[in-house]
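Appendix B. Worked example

We walk through a single record from start to finish. Start with the input: the chain for Vinorine synthase-like, Perilla frutescens var. hirtella, length 419.
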Amino acid sequence: MVSDMKIISKEVIKPSSPTPIHLRNLKLSFLDQIAPPMYVPLIFFFNHHQLTLQHFTHSKISRLLKQSLSKTLTIFYPLGGRIQENSSVDCNDSGVEFIEARVHTQLSELIQEASMEEIKKLQPVESSLHDEEILLKVKICFFDCGGISVAVSLSHKIADGISSAAFVKAWSDSCRGESETNILRPIFDLVSVFPQRDLSAFEKIEKLGMCEEKLVTKRFVFEKEEVTKMKNDFNTPRVVEAVSAYLWRRFMDVARAKNSSKTSFAAIHAVNLRPRRSPVAIPEQMFGNCFRRTIAFSEAEEEDDDHELVVKLRWAIARIDDDYIRKLEEGEHMDVLRGSVDLLKNGEVGLCSFSSWRRFPVYEVDFGWGKPVWVCTTTLPYKNLVVLMSTPCGEGIEAWANMMEEDMKEFEQCLNECH
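Next comes the structure step. The output line below is what the pipeline stores for this chain.
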């Protein structure tokens, strides 16, 4: 399908205005320092009806996207810079990569199949691993049917998923013609909340848990009715809790079916810190890696039921509170970090991870030709990781699971048996 792709152009887009001298050096926060060296991938799809109705030609789309990207980079100025020794960003306006390509296939077929091997070809990087200096790469693909995809890969060293989505939203607002005063401006001051730490005792901490083996990624869709049933069965009003517990149970079932010797199973969940500090929350527009991972455990011999798993997840997430954040700000979590290192290196615990992107404003992105018909991510270099995203209608959940191929077959079979 996407194998027949032709690159039209590749160029560097720089900020439309130079970054002021006093903003040329941005220190990374402690949470940025330990962030993984990889890209956060997002791909937005727009069908031909949206474009043809408003007479958007390929050349016009290209021109508008480049011009608005250049303007947006003056607001998100670190994105056009380069990271220096995992310590700071040299905001030198070196620019970002912008690629255009033609794809000789139908966009509707690609969405329907949702084959990750095909979808990955649309992204501007060959791998999610961040092995280059460029912090932001963009790729626009023009399909034979007239539809387009806009793929954004932003370095996780300076942005979490929320920050990445905020950047794309701001870029689309600019492209649509919104004035700069109406665009939510980012705050680049996370280091004042979470000061840098000496990580010399934690060699390659940012790569901890990353997998160099080949992983497969599949999408599992839970429609509104299924999600509602899960919430009722598990006695929880929270969608993410219900779906996470349901999938955690399937991970454990697969491990037990393989006669696993694991003494316990852990579910790791990413938690956004911004709204969890009180009485003054961290501003929602704070740019950077403003999240931490929490861990819920289920002992192998206990065989918790689904409701008990929900309770354990809820308790683990609730631990990320104001007291936790204050200690994190003051540097009292180095022992916790050391414990996390030991856990990930300990083969006795079966690990699965969850990251919810459900509330990201990805379906509010509008470059001027309407909102996307579909938004997805791509394979991330973590084994047994699930990214949760909303379905286009907003009422269901798409779970993108990254696993070893042999485990994926068992996992998929387990899910099918439960339906």
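Two observations about the output. The mean pLDDT is 90. The first strand starts at residue 5 and ends at 13.
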